[in-house]
Amino acid sequence: MNARTEQRIAFGFLLGATLLVVMPVLIILAIIFLKGISALNLDFLLGFPESGMNAGGILPAILGTLYLVFGAVAFAVPLGVLSAIYLVEYSRDNAISRLIRLAIVNLAGVPSVVYGLFGLGIFVIFLGFGVSILSGSLTLGIMILPVIITASREALESVPKSFRLVSFSLGASRWQTIRHAVLPHALPGIMTGTILGLGRAAGETAPILFTVAAFYLPALPESVFDQTMALPYHLYVISTQVPGIREDFRFGTALVLLLLVLLLNLAAIILRYRFRKKKKW
After folding, report:
1. I want to staple 123 with a disulfide (CB 3.0 to 4.6 A). Which of 95, 135, 238, 245 is the partner?
2. What residues form DSSP beta bridges with 55?
3. How confident is the model over 106-158, as pLDDT tens digits?
4. What is the gyration radius of the CA atoms in the chain, in angstroms?
């Protein structure tokens, strides 16, 4: 077998593997779109559930999801970036720091239901926040924290050492070096971690099941200590607990959730692109 034939066979296997991964996702997206698009109208997007959720809209679930996602990101991004800065720029390379890095990576693989039980025990019961937006946001924030720390750490480590050496040689302190010579160049990588965290926070059901999600609410929440509806849990409820609900309602809710995640990711990707354009190396 000559080199050209080997290359064609390898290309065929690689293309087949890629299609095997991509095609099921595209088929699922197509089914959700085709079955759900007919439900999307202003009454559905801007109304409250009615008639035992067999009619009306999903506005409380959309707003609740946005509250939870922004709350989780507001908690996790600053804490995750600061932790990554400490691990990369300040901590020494010893057994303890390596153990912390390993623990962070392993935490990213913990099932989401475990985070839900953790949030129930710590935020809802021990700290007394109750079943509320605050408890749900903090639980989701804890869940996406390992992803953001890992992505931020890798982004900081990718900045060339020469940037730091030049800054030190000009008399800058370590913090001034981090702030002006390292962080601006690591921001695109940090945004990548934030995008991954956004998607996971918006789509998870188990963590909010124990900490914030309500089956049905007649009004919107007025404070962070109120419960709220959320799209992932609402989709689970209408798919399993509401008999006879129209099919386009279920797929329409799934479609709105997908579009919401895509829009949040798109906004973060545009922001990352703007930061990346400013890089000079």
Report:
1. 135
2. 50
3. 888 888 899 999 999 999 999 999 999 999 999 999 999 998 999 899 889 98
4. 23
